[in-house]
Amino acid sequence: MKEISGGVVAAKGFQAAGIRVGVKASALPMEEQTGEGKKDLCMVLSDSCCSVAGMFTTNQVKAAPVRLTREHIASGYGYGVIANSGNANACAPNSRLHALEMCRAAAEATGHQPEEFAVCSTGVIGQELNVKAILEGTPRLVAALHADECASDEAARAIMTTDTVKKEIAVETMVGGKRIAVGGIAKGSGMIHPNMGTMLSFVTTDCAVSPAMLDRMVHEIVPRTFNRVTVDGDTSTNDTFLVFANGQGGNETICQPGEDYESLKEALMYVCTQLARKMAADGEGASRLITCLVEGARSEETAERLAKAVVGSSLVKAAMFGADANWGRVICAMGYSKAPFRPEYVDIKFASSAGEVLVCQQGNTVAFDETLAKKVLTQPEITIAIHVHDGDSSAECWGCDLTYDYVKINGDYRT
Amino acid sequence: MKEISGGVVAAKGFQAAGIRVGVKASALPMEEQTGEGKKDLCMVLSDSCCSVAGMFTTNQVKAAPVRLTREHIASGYGYGVIANSGNANACAPNSRLHALEMCRAAAEATGHQPEEFAVCSTGVIGQELNVKAILEGTPRLVAALHADECASDEAARAIMTTDTVKKEIAVETMVGGKRIAVGGIAKGSGMIHPNMGTMLSFVTTDCAVSPAMLDRMVHEIVPRTFNRVTVDGDTSTNDTFLVFANGQGGNETICQPGEDYESLKEALMYVCTQLARKMAADGEGASRLITCLVEGARSEETAERLAKAVVGSSLVKAAMFGADANWGRVICAMGYSKAPFRPEYVDIKFASSAGEVLVCQQGNTVAFDETLAKKVLTQPEITIAIHVHDGDSSAECWGCDLTYDYVKINGDYRT
């Protein structure tokens, strides 16, 4: 898979923009530190009609923009998305109306229909959205649309909340003999969990693919990428993943599973995996990306449940912050996952660029070099590699360590 | 319910002791600060045979002492318990043997049978237990048994790990016209969750009750007390709750449900509730006890699931640390609990000794006095009171805030 530049506008026919309209009234702490992310309104738009597919939060409390977007993309077609940061437009007065107004403003400024737009919001829950600022700013947002390299950067920054880095990636691949591009942006750092806690991600491609095939692909990919990230176990009211495919790459439209389907899926999987890992690494206050790889499980589902329990354990996360090879907490987390395994078969290794160290064999402690373990665990990317010797299935989940800064960021986010 | 002194030896015929034998080789951080808890071997013993009942961890990885104790109390009878802190005797060499050896040593020093003893361990997982120190110390432990007021205190301290305060309570009540006492001790601060994450609790009573009725009572009480505490979502390998009833109170033995059963149950419920609250308040690094009360639910199970999700949310916990009235995180946690409720019916209040403040009505934001909210939320005990207007059931769950100290304590516990 060849990475290319351009992010969400790497594919032909897409434009993007990110501007500041004033939804983020007071700058958030992280932004003060980095001077970034103060943009708060974003658009990604195709100049021709797209096949659209998406997946959304499983939280029972669904924000108005999530509900509206589901209705709008039910047709399988659309042109783009308008999104704001700084306010989730959830559990707040007039939230449905405000989400509608955002789509109408986007439609009016672009010459499309409101129902051809998806709409997303991220930020504080329970405060009325300053929709006036958004409606007034939308013509300026549309005027700012472009496809230069920095367009993706601008759009990515405009959806950031407590994120410390913007997240974008693009790749190119061959589908049906044509060069096609797949690229995307994402935001998400706190509240990221199995089912896409407060994350937004918009992916574009110039591949030609039917809405049905795109939807099928999304449902295969999201559970293995975004849903395998856990930061703090909370899922949000606003999580949204959207993919737009405008067909300008010139391949024969993918209308059924087969070689072309697999080629596009591979590229989309790569893009989503990288975005998911970037989100895990940017978990609120995180200092380390933690990957938990479970191998030898009797099913992929079992492997995933075990891996998720490990990267989701507050005690494991705190031990990783302290670079403490406390594998007892790893096997303990596996134990309460409810996934089947035999403790007496379990091997556990810690690995990183500094090497690897076996700490548990057949469920029991083994002598290991504490100095090496410390060296391994003080790297920015750690893998907890578990073998359960019970089958041939495996899964990888991503999370981060639990730090003082997580508590700091979340102890006073709202004020 | 009248509280009395004496803790786990308040009931007639019980003795207790706590001594230091050296299992805790290096003092744990909290102990260095408080100068307390360095004791590491505990016994509670009745001078006549008891009805015994218990509940244990649901973690698939069960420590050897948990497995052995379940076998030993299967008869429904026993004399007491021997317990060490500093090492969990889990996932470590010879753990089954060492648990057996502890029971044998206790039996030998007291003149009973090994299977008449329960055995518990709490502490680090994956390191071989220094059983030699325990075996050598057991005669001294038994010699130290007494029923003075400080016996309960000594025993409570000997099972502490990262606990900052010892936990004990006793009450007296009337059963069948006789005055009977119920008292207990507990340890637990980290890893406390729905299903009794690393907690030990031993309760004694001089009430006469059959093993079957005692077992039934325990299964009614534990799910409503210890299982409603959550500190960090992790459950441990060693959780154990045991109750010993020696019948010396002279009431007619409770052999079936009825008035006497309810009287004893009420006292036991009170003792377990107080011990559970003490554990929540002493969550690792906690600065506040958080009670979540859910009312108006369609079933008790629904109320409990909603309340547990709220007190278990890292984001809610961090907001409570920051005294931030961020009710959006409360409704968001309810939303991912999977328990049925209608967001648009939900009212949320924050309450404490400083007053109460309504922050959400019918699922929507309401104007509230931020100064008052800050005052309410800076108290040591906070209640998040939720009404879901969907039925008549309610439940209360307990947790604590998430603080810098939680991260500190758990970032380097093992070394």
What does it look like?
2 copies of one chain form a homodimer. Chain A has 415 residues and is α+β, with helices and mostly antiparallel strands. The first copy, chain A, contains 12 helices and 15 strands. In chain A, strands 1, 2, 3, 4, 5, 6, 7, 8 and 9 form a 9-stranded mixed sheet that branches. The first copy, chain A, has a 6-stranded mixed sheet with strand order 13-12-11-14-10-15. In chain A, helix 8 (300-312) packs across helix 10 (327-336). The longest helix of chain A has 23 residues, at 259-281. In chain A, 64% of the residues are buried. The model of chain A is unreliable at 27-37 and 191-197 (pLDDT under 50).
| Unreliable sequence segments of chain A | 27-37, 191-197
Helix content percent band of chain A:
25-40%
Q: Give the biggest beta sheet of chain A.
A: 9 strands, mixed
Specify which chain pair forms the largest interface: A-B, 67 and 67 residues
Rg of chain A, alpha carbons? 21 Å
**What value does the average pLDDT of chain A take?**
90
Order of helices and strands of chain A: EEHEHEHEHHEEEHEHEHHHEEEHEEH
Distance between the termini of chain A: 44 Å
By DSSP (H or I, 4+ residues per run), the number of helices of chain A equals 12
User: Based on helices, strands and strand pairing, what is the structural class of chain A?
Assistant: alpha+beta
Number of β-strand runs of chain A: 15
Shape of chain A: globular
How much strand of chain A? 25-35%
Q: Which quaternary structure do these chains form?
A: homodimer
